[in-house]
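Lecture 7 notes: from sequence to structure.
We start with the chain below.
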Amino acid sequence: MQIDRLNFHHLFYFWRVAKAGHLTQVAKELHVSQSALSSQIRQLEDRLGQALFERTGRRLVLTATGQLALSYAENIFGLGQELLGRLQGSGEGTVRLRVGSVATLSRNYQENWIRPLLVDPTVMLALESGMLDELLRRLLQHQLDVVLANEAVPADPDRPLHCRFLGSQAISLVGPAAVWRGRSLRIPEDLGGLELALPGPRHALRGQFDALCVAAGVLPRLRAEVDDMAMLRLVARDSGWLTVLPEVVVQDELRAGVLVTVGRSSQLQEHFYAITTVHRHRIERLEQLLASAPMLAEDTPLARERATSDRPASQARNPGPAKKTRRLRPPTGQRLG
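Predicted structure tokens for the same chain:
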């Protein structure tokens, strides 16, 4: 069969019904009668020479041929949605890059990651945050180009996603400088009874911290649990409590001396991932970001200032040749995307 004999309007109707599993809802959404919708799909089956659905009770179930047709239709209409999203708001010579990030991700980390784009006049950024499942749904519908997350997405044949490990950073205990400057605590051994603000239960870090406390038999006094990293930053700055979080979240407050690092634990790590669809239009600037190591907390100006101030004066005056930046490896058992 020649490509010009394939009716893409019929294929679109099939795609919508295959995703919904029944005719009634799709007919209502497309403002067509149920009989007209059914007729269009039958014409597609006649053109292909094979059945696409079989009825099981009140639901339509895809045949093996229907599954194959759906996988192609997903790519065809997904790319169509991507085309519309790419053109929306873009001018001549401008690339529109749509970035989603989970609400529990540090906004400072996100800013560090997109920093090269902020000075690129050829890029128009669209940034949004939300829950991971909703962001992945929009990614699969080609309404986003990349999702930044702090947890990996498992392989799933029904969700063809590419999960790329970006790096990791240690988690710190920070507190107000007026109280904690020059003091240090062990995590979690010294935290019993102390007032703490923590990431919320949905944050990947929270489970790690709770497990450490249970294993050590330590019970801190929980004063706040905050999902949003921007809000946790404000709580750390203004509450007077100790706070467990990635240093990158409060890098400005640490640099200004408002907060100080009270403790660190090598057992607490936050990992960062960039999630994309397998079938996508390749955007050069995005591919460059994905291929390069991001600026993590250990490589921020604050960390470099601290490293310089901690060295002997002779070394500070003669730092020697610059070290090459080492690409961070994923944690044991984590496969690179």
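Points to note: The first strand starts at residue 53 and ends at 56. The beta strands are 53-56, 59-62, 95-102, 123-130, 146-149, 161-176, 195-199, 221-226, 242-246, 259-277.
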